[in-house]
């Protein structure tokens, strides 16, 4: 066992590791920028001990933290590379571990079990590179947290988080979550507030055991009984654009055989029923996206819905008063009870009205909901989502799609 007890501030340039069990830090270790350092053996950061990594830190075994593991404010280039070579790596302790950039790269379990067993809070502020190795925080009581502005790359069936992932801040984010050796993401749009916090989790299980499929609106034909996603909002309700994915190896064929009929559905605990949230399908990416509201824990999955009367939406809007596409034209609404909602690409509602098209009640590029934009303010050019809800014979159907606003 090797004990490092460096009481004074010291730039750590190199630590050769010849120990046979673990390295214990009871002092202060500082890894300078552009400096590579390797810990071959387990690293135990004791109470009141400090490890600041602004360089390139290689960890080949377990890491436990009871003190401070972090990086200098303003440093964006430091990286911690988790590269186990002789089995899984425990990430443990009672004090959260703060990393800037991180690389997960451990295939010592052959891809058949978790190589990173997380029982602590692991906070990531930069970019996480999922090269190889499954990160399991579900079985061990830990949590992987991505801070505002952070992200991840190279997520795949070989490397993802099995369990819950938290995201702080307002940038758009795709949760690197999976289960049963399958990566199956859930994405959220950029949000209104940088203080927002969400978490996402994927479960390759039958949601109907807890949330009965017999309880659903009549337009839902088949609910996915192989998988579901849990999205949690910490704090008040937020609107966002939710994106789910499908995979032929997991998602039932009955759901994806007709992609145009795929929808996002949500379990509504108050109504004790599955509800249709609509969705826009991207066949190339195998994703479906729709504006949703999230408060507390919400269960989502995919479903197949009945074909309904389609309404013709001319989704190009250019309110320049040239007589062409000056407003959003929708054909087929005569005599129907309807509601139109429009959301920006962050999922923020900017327009809402009932009885669309009657008495010049149309969308012509101006907000009528005071939110980020002032009421009656001209909206910026860009792509927006619309949700058209039509009620006929006491039954409501949803049509979700894009519209394009330009001068």
UniProtKB/TrEMBL annotation:
| N-terminal signal peptide | 1-21
List keywords of the entry alphabetically: Signal
Instruction: Reply yes or no: does the keyword Signal apply.
Output: yes
Name listed for the protein in its UniProt record: Gliding motility-associated C-terminal domain-containing protein
* Organism, as annotated: Flavobacterium lipolyticum
Organism lineage reads as: Bacteria, Pseudomonadati, Bacteroidota, Flavobacteriia, Flavobacteriales
